[in-house]
Amino acid sequence: MTVAMEREARLGVGSESGCWPTPLQKLVLRAALLEGREALDAWQEWKNTADLDAIDIGSHRMLPQLYNNLSTHGVRDPLLQKFTSVYRYYWYKNEMLLRTGGAVLKVLHQAGLETMALKGAALIPLYYRHAALRPMNDFDIAVPVSRVTTAMRLLDRLGWRSSCTFAPALIPILHATAFSDAQGQQLDLHWHVLRGCWNATHDSGFWHRSVAISIGHQPTRALDPTDQLLHICWHGAEWNPVPAIRWVADAMMILKTDHARVDWERFVQQAALHHLHLPIYHSLTYLRKNFQASIPERVLENIGSLPRTKLEQHGYRMLTEPITQPTTRELLRTLRYEYHRLASGVPAWRGPLLFALWLRGQFAIEKPWRLLFILPYRALRWTVRRTSWHGRTLWLGLGGA
């Protein structure tokens, strides 16, 4: 064990919590993803333990893949018949999303925009090969940041409406925004591949290394296997009240696909560039330990030995632990972390401007000049709450009402 790994162990970083599958979720994942006796044993244990009328949404979205894997193993269980309706439901929903996404791609291409499909929209044609096996909530499309306002105008003309309060001025500090149409279908428009990390504006390599795919008879691009795995593992290490488990299946599909060659040296380099080595290390360790993922030991050693600062450790805790009442020191450290994250990869003069923009977004301040007046007032109000007796017990958080 390296010194870095020992330090993580002492910190308790990476322990199973709300960002990792629960024991029951792990069983359904193993039954859906593994082969032979390990898959069958996990299926029997999960079937005998889980309340099938009250399973979480993450486990429910694994049922098509579970059904497919057990059928491949020749399992004849009456319970599987109940999964056929779930299988058909996700097949129909995904087909509609992919068809709608293809129509959007066509309009964007006609306007001369480059596009890249992300998440399920890219994983289905490349790795799952069947729409039912990878349930999607929305269709994810990326465009170059220089064309994002054009893409938004085109979506508006097509009848897509932003499903969140969004100001175009916030584009420099965001990575995506959500849209929905009159039928309730969801679409996420991205202009950066990675979110909430250092050097998030360094997207040119992702586009340069991307591979060609087709969705709804429309050509587009997708991340190559190495970048795809990085993207998945980064999204996996994030705390949720109900742990998200789809990332495990997505990562395993890449690692088990013969044509998907992961460039591990570049993988480590990208993890270092974006300061993702803590979440990536723990995501890969989880996959190797629980699903026998074919990840070389040297990769874990190289990522685990990368230097990390206290600020990066703080950022990882923010990502993987539930929101709690912060101390003044923790709040200041969070602000410092956000400043350095936003300032990474941009000219020195741009860092303060991006941080001011981030503060506007956090405090929902529409006019830039109001930041000078509202921010000190809210900071003072926050300080009073923190130091008063009632403030100790009625904490409403930074920027509370």
Please describe the structure with a list of short key phrases separated by commas or semicolons.
disordered N terminus, 7-stranded mixed sheet, 7% strand, alpha/beta, 19 helices, globular, 401 residues, 7 strands
Q: How would you characterize the overall build of this protein?
A:
The chain is globular. It has helices at 3-11, 23-33, 36-49, 57-60, 63-72, 78-110, 120-128, 148-157, 204-209, 225-236, 246-256, 264-273, 277-291, 297-304, 310-320, 328-343, 350-363, 371-387, 389-393; strands at residues 116-118, 139-142, 161-162, 176-180, 186-190, 211-215, 218-222. The chain folds into two domains: 3-304, Beta Polymerase, domain 2 (2-Layer Sandwich); 327-393, no CATH class. By secondary structure, the chain is an alpha/beta fold. The protein has 19 helices and seven strands. Residues 1-16 and 383-401 have low confidence and may be disordered. The chain starts with a helix and ends in an 8-residue tail after the last helix. Helix 2 runs antiparallel to helix 3, helix 2 (23-33) packs across helix 5 and helix 15 crosses helix 16 (328-343). A seven-stranded mixed β-sheet has the order 3-4-5-2-1-7-6.
Task: Compute the average pLDDT.
Answer: 86
* DSSP helix fraction: 55-70%
Helix/strand class? alpha/beta
Top-tier CATH class of the largest domain: Alpha Beta
Q: What is the domain tally?
A: 2
Series of secondary-structure elements, N-terminal to C-terminal:
HHHHHHEHEHEEEHEEHHHHHHHHHH
| Major sheet attributes | 7 strands, mixed
At CATH's second level, what is the architecture of the largest domain? 2-Layer Sandwich
Instruction: Tally the beta strands.
Output: 7
